Description:
By secondary structure, the protein is of the alpha/beta class.
Amino acid sequence: MTDAMFTLLIVEDDAGIRSVLRTLLESQRYRVVEAENAARGVIEARNHRPDLAIVDLGLPDRDGVALIREVRRFSPLPILVLSARTMEADKIAALDAGADDYVAKPFSAPELLARVRAGLRRNAQGGEQLPILRFGPISVDLHTRSTSGPEGAVHLTPLEYRVLDCLARHSGLIVTQAQLIREAWGPERAGDSRGLRSYIKMLRQKLEPDPRQPRYLLTEAGVGYRLRVDDELAK
Ligand code: CA
């Protein structure tokens, strides 16, 4: 339940799905603005200055990816893609165009609402990282770069902190492999997803209660990673 009133824009040509989304979002006291095509979506994004947009990719006038690119020219608002397209390439194209996350249709209501909350949190923080991350009994302070658990201090390398920094700035949202590598290593290492995988594996061994079944550092197959925060686990 939200205390503040947030305005959410839905860009979706299927009236049935728009209506389901409206009912779901209004039950959480979000204000909802609808657009049935990409052109209308751009107009409503300008007029209403929504706090978050939910965008379908298969729109009648233009592709949703083109819409995302256009909205990104004038607004940093969080954009959640809601699409039946499940190919990794489609997800990566939408995320590269500036989307913050991707939810597949058919969607589950709790999952969609968790993504909406994560998107709104990203907006409220203005992209700032959360200062303290909790992995069950282990907590990571990203400001002081110190980590402690039940058995005392846990050592993380500077690079491991940079990977966590990047995930934390988008906590609850997908971060693509390319984005993580660019932000943690720098552009010259682009494409080194094997190196990234081994760092994620190390982080899981140090932080996850059960590294073989990660609860916090989640893999989004073929796309990237997601840091799940405790607010979502409680729901
Ligand atoms: Ca559609």
